Amino acid sequence: MKRIVRESIQKYVSPQRLVALGAIALAFLGGLMFREQEQPIAVADVEGEVEVDTPLPVRVLEIEEASAYEVAENYSGAVEAPRSSDVSFQHSGVIASLFVAEGERVAGGTPIAQLETQELELQRTELFAQIDRSRARLDELQAGSRVQEIETGRAKVRRYEAQLELTKLSAKRRKDLYLRGAIAEEEFDAAQANVEIAQAELDAARSELNLLLAGTPPQQQDAQLAEIRQLEAQVAALDLSIAQRTLYAPFSGTVTTQYLHEGSVVSAGTAVMHLVQDEALEVRIGVPLSIASTLRIGSRPQIWLEDKPYRAVLKSVLPEVDTQTQTQTLLLELPPEIPAVPGAVVRLTLRQAEATPGYWLPMAALVAGDRGLWTCYGLRDVDEAASIYEIEPHTLEVIHTESDRAFVRGTLQPGDAVVADGVHRLVPGQQVTVIDRQQSP
Fold first, then answer.
1. Residue 124 — pLDDT band, cuts 50, 70, 90?
2. Which of 53, 267, 357, 400 has its CA 20 to 30 A from that of 256?
3. pTM above 0.90?
4. Using the 8-state DSSP alphabet, how is residue 247 labeled?
5. Distance of alpha carbon 100 from alpha carbon 88, whole angstroms
6. Residue 399 neighbours by CB distance under 10 Å
7. Which residues, listed in sequence order, are joined to residue 87 by a DSSP beta bridge?
8. What is the dihedral of CA 129, 134, 139, 144, to 10 degrees?
9. Residue 271: which of 81, 83, 82, 89 has the closest Cα?
10. DSSP codes joined into one string, 81-146
């Protein structure tokens, strides 16, 4: 290898000696200027060039042909909560209590708010009192009439019978007096009316006595039992209404928004809080149809969250195609260890193989060429015994690049040795010696 060494004469001589040498040289040249057979002697410039043959040490790669290369494509999506809901009461009322606040996490089925229920509790107490009275009456009907009640009924009948006889005698005397003209017709009519009233009271007393003697009819007991069941159904309806005035968390999550406070009057369906499920978060990402068809449910593609790599689980590929973007939606489930929150942006990285033969070279082995092409330096044997080689350029086309390497094709053959780095120091035809030999990446 040739190495060009540039040296300055001023580095080795003083200015005074330089002047003296210059004078001597001029004199010498003057004496020889007419001598045609002699070769003129040239004095080096202040900065001259001296060539030194020293092979430059280089590191080389022995390349192997690859049948394909992988392309990493990135697709973005947002983290979503599987469920989020504005929770509300089924009934109107006044909010009595709020058991959680914004930012707190609750388990599914936990009470989170309650309406006032005092009025319903009073109605419930009144219904229980009515049930007690109805049950006592049913017990009486089922036990039948007691002897004391029958005797009382008989005495009542005898009393009304005596009263009827008295009113009949009074009416008879009023009739005689009326016929003699001693009293007015109104007094006679009143006496007749008293007889009819007494007869009606006697008939009612006899009916009650007959019922007591015959016992309670089954129909009356059934009617009383039906009344009790109706009251119990009203209690059950009140219990349900009271229970519905307590609001429970429909699923485990975090309260992100609190819309109302204690004392607020709410209508049925008015949102009280917004609850977001913060477990089993998901990501929806659209990818081309050709890529979606190659993915396997349950696989763990790589995702990036805040420039940190993680592995998600492919939960499903939705069958519908977005008509605007012509993509299919991937539904990815994020493992619990991923510190994601709803709304965060996630980047999905998928690698696809491109079936094209070529070679992988480090970027440090490439030199920019003409017309968009590139060059790398191979080795040609000069002195195999001394391991001295000569630089030989190869024209390349860069097909794909990654962070520190490129996939190329060109005038290379499998097994060729290519200079790995330091190519800016080299020129075609320059001699080098190999200090390190490695396999290509």
1. very high
2. 267
3. no
4. E
5. 14
6. 16
7. 273
8. 140
9. 89
10. -S-EEEEE-SS-EEEEEE---TT-EE-TT-EEEEE--HHHHHHHHHHHHHHHHHHHHHHHHHH---
Please identify which residue in the block is written with the tokens 């019978």.
161
Query: Which position has the token pair 């330096």?
Result: 377
Cβ atoms of residues 407 and 399 within 8 Å = yes
Distance in angstroms between the alpha carbons of the first and the last residue of the chain:
28
Beta bridge partners of 390: 380, 431
Q: Give the whole-angstrom CA distance, residue 117 versus residue 238.
A: 10
Run of H or E residues at 244: helix 218-244
| Structure-token pair, residue 43 | 């004095």
Residue 236 has pLDDT above 80, yes or no: yes
Q: Cα dist. 169→163, 166, 203, 374 in Å?
A: 10, 5, 19, 145
DSSP assignment letter at 34: T
Q: Are 350 and 72 in contact (CB under 8 A)?
A: yes
The residues with which 8 forms a beta bridge, in sequence order, are 47
Is residue 234 over pLDDT 60?
yes
* Max Cα distance, the chain (Å): 205
d(CA 33, CA 20): 20
Residues 70-104: tens digit of each pLDDT: 888 899 999 999 899 999 999 999 999 999 999 99
Q: Which two tokens stand for residue 363?
A: 């970027």
Decide the pairing of beta strands 69-80 and 105-106: unpaired
195, 175 Cβ separation under 8 angstroms:
no
For residue 326, give every residue at least 6 positions away whose Cβ sits within 8 Å of its Cβ, in sequence order, or none.
288, 289
Q: Is 113 exposed, middle or buried (0-12, 13-18, 19+ CB in 10 A)?
A: buried
| Pairing state between β 282-288 and 69-80 | antiparallel
Q: In sequence order, what DSSP letters do the residues of 171-185 get, joined into one string?
A: HHHHHHHHHTTSS-H
Pairing of strands 271-276, 313-321: unpaired
Range 42-62 average pLDDT: 65
Beta strands per DSSP E along 322-404: 327-333, 345-354, 359-362, 367-368, 374-383, 388-401
What is residue 299's three-state secondary structure?
coil
Which residue type, as a one-letter code, is found at position 18?
A: L
Instruction: Decide if 313 contacts 269 (C-beta within 8 A).
Output: no
Over residues 369-385, the mean pLDDT reads 87
Q: How far apart are CA 33 and CA 30, in angstroms?
A: 5
Strands 417-419 and 56-62: antiparallel
